[in-house]
Design goal:
By secondary structure, the protein is an alpha/beta fold. The chain has a single domain, classed as Peroxisomal Thiolase, Chain A, domain 1. 33% of the residues lie in helices and 18% in strands. It has 13 helices and 15 strands. Strands 1, 2, 5, 6, 7, 8, 9, 10, 11, 14 and 15 form an 11-stranded mixed beta sheet that branches. A two-stranded antiparallel sheet has the order 3-4. Helix 3 crosses helix 4 and helix 7 crosses helix 13. The longest helix has 20 residues. The radius of gyration is 21 Å and the shape is globular.
């Protein structure tokens, strides 16, 4: 039960998921395969003066469409991550409730006080000056704990009884994949037999939306939200901001088999490569993207010809999709495997994207089906790839799937997901 480098094979025995299409793995997965979109008009805050007024929001149970709310991004991250972890742990059947026998790796966005908290402090201080707001915040331990970056992981670790110190990390759009990679490497080094890897993001709030809009990164196709996300398509005009979470229970294959667990698949390889070209753009030579893909294949001991499908990063921005297609051609040559982007249906879930898409890759292997890239109306002649346009595709013999995550700042992580070997 070792890989080609003599390391323990790392199995996935549980998956949990929250997306704009629903709470729970099977609800989201079936709606993805049906080509449904979870993109809609934003209702949780006013958008009248904003360039982009659509997103893939996830409503918490107490929220209603159009109602105002003071629920912050880190609170949303914690709520969605907790749901995804609970679902994954239940499927894995690993450990008693609140006593998980391994570590927690949490990928989440950077956090800071948001406008509702700032306005509340300004009112309490009677001033908009920063120094006065600091005085007004004195003694508000709840405010400190809510917006402490490591606090979410600490509370999740306490709830699920994970071992050791939880690790919280952020690597832009590659964050969810980084959390998985970090957990995999801990198991491969023999530091733990099991781990929970989760990526979660709840950043659909005014300031984050405005910042991405100022970068000209967001689609402004507000008149038809469900048709706005158009990865790899000629008329694409940016990504659609979204939120969600996914968790994987990972353990050594030997440990999973010893306890009779059902194995969903393997995380067979992880590849990363960074560049320092620009804060948001990829280096036009594509070296980091190409290198990350090749590193994942090499780490897994899998040849390019053996990859049957790629779950693409596919954001729908003009440059990113072009660079991903360039990387695909460089690695796979004239016969690349099919690639599709589930961001066409759920938008870009940012810190959660790498985890959600790794989960979808495993489900593709499990069910032998490729989710579609919807809204593919007019092919881009510069992207000559099979993007599984508009309709899912049933396949057979699918054993290896590549999941790409390319983040701002040149932070790139690719995961190679594989079918489990015969027992």
């Amino acid at each position: 039960m070792k890989d080609h480098l003599g390391r323990p094979l790392v199995a996935v025995t549980g998956i949990g998921m929250v997306t704009p299409l629903g709470w729970g793995v099977e609800r989201s997965w079936q709606r993805l395969l049906a080509g449904e979109s979870g993109i809609r008009r934003i209702g949780r805050f006013p958008t009248a003066q904003l360039r982009t007024t659509i997103a893939g929001t996830v409503d918490l149970p107490e929220e209603t469409e159009g109602g105002s709310t003071a629920i912050s991004s880190p609170e949303r991250v914690e709520r969605m991550a907790a749901f995804a972890i609970a679902e994954a742990v239940a499927e894995a059947g690993l450990g008693a409730e609140g006593d998980f026998p391994g570590v927690l790796m949490l990928g989440m966005p950077p956090v800071e006080h948001e406008w509702p908290q700032r306005f509340a402090l300004a009112r309490a201080a009677g001033s908009g000056r920063y120094v006065d707001q600091v005085r007004a915040a004195t003694g508000h331990r709840d405010l400190y704990e809510t917006f402490l970056f490591g606090g979410v992981g600490e509370r999740l670790a306490a709830r699920f009884g994970t071992k050791g110190a939880p690790i919280s990390m952020t690597t832009a759009c590659a964050t969810g994949a980084t959390a998985i990679q970090t957990a995999v490497e801990a198991i491969q080094r023999g530091e733990t037999d099991a781990a929970i890897a989760v990526g979660a993001d709840g950043s659909v709030q005014p300031e984050a939306l405005i910042r991405f809009s100022l970068l000209s990164a967001l689609s402004a196709r507000n008149e038809d939200p469900t048709a706005a996300a158009r990865p790899f398509e000629k008329t694409r005009d940016g990504f659609v901001m979204s939120e969600g979470a996914a968790a994987l229970v990972l353990e050594s294959l030997a440990s999973a088999r010893a306890r009779g667990a059902a194995v969903i698949g393997l995380v067979a390889g992880c590849g990363e490569r960074a560049d320092s070209f620009h804060r948001t753009r990829s280096n036009p030579d594509g070296a980091a993207i190409i290198g990350a893909i090749r590193n994942a294949l090499s780490d897994a001991g899998v040849a390019p010809a053996d990859v049957g499908y790629v779950n693409g990063h596919g954001t729908g921005t003009p440059e990113n999709d072009k660079m991903e297609a360039f990387g695909m051609r460089a690695v796979f040559g004239e016969a690349p495997p099919p690639i599709s982007s589930i961001k066409s249906m759920i938008g870009h879930t940012l810190s959660a994207a790498g985890a959600i898409e790794a989960a979808a890759s495993l489900l593709s292997i499990r069910d032998q089906v490729l989710p579609p890239t919807i809204n593919h109306v007019e092919p881009d002649p510069s992207i000559t790839l099979d993007v599984v346009p508009n309709v899912k595709r049933q396949v057979s013999g699918l054993r290896h799937v590549l999941s790409n995550s390319f983040g701002f700042g040149g932070q790139n992580v690719c995961l190679l997901l594989s079918a489990a070997p015969e027992a």
